[in-house]
Design brief:
By secondary structure, the chain is an all-alpha fold. It has helices at about 1-35, 40-70, 75-105, 115-140, 155-170, 175-210, 215-220.
Amino acid sequence: MRTKFSSELAALTDELAHMARLAHEAAERAAVAIENADLTAAYEVLALDEQIQADHARCEDRSVLLLALEAPVARDLRNVVTAIQIAEDLSGVAAALSRVADSVVRAFPDPVAPEQITAALTAMAGVVAQLAAAAITAITAQQVPPDTSLIPPDPAMDRLHQQLMRAVADADWTHGNAMAVETALLAHHFERCAVHCVRIGRLIRFFHTGVPLSAQSEET
């Protein structure tokens, strides 16, 4: 029975790692879609979102069965509960990137924003791709340093977000209110992706060390 339970936990981790790889690919394709007004890349992001949401459902089903049938205790229980939350965060990353892709599709053949804005949005997508890559590493790690933030916030994301908010609020903004709102929404979607990725790092640290997320936010 214990061997079967361990096998199910390993399969659950593999599914999470697969979701993280898909999220990383989606972030990379979102960057291409934004930068080049690339309709194909946008549709690839939407397709990846569908795959991630299907994987999310499978992870939830596997986790519920483990909780209901195996009655895990202590570390095993922490593993399953953490996996459920990580899957939810990866689903959130995919959903946010899907909204970015929707914007590209709606704007096509025009770019979603003026050139200087597009450059900043593309950079934000690149930050998300880096954070998603860090999530893959964290999920598949056998051990983690006890006092280290596994996926620390990237200062570039906050800097780019503030840059875009200043741009759309500037008196010299000449691209209209609709474009200002669209730019703010796109920046928000990327910022939420980053938040989800950082939270994944904290969840994994919680699993390995038992340090609660609230304590980590104070320490790191």
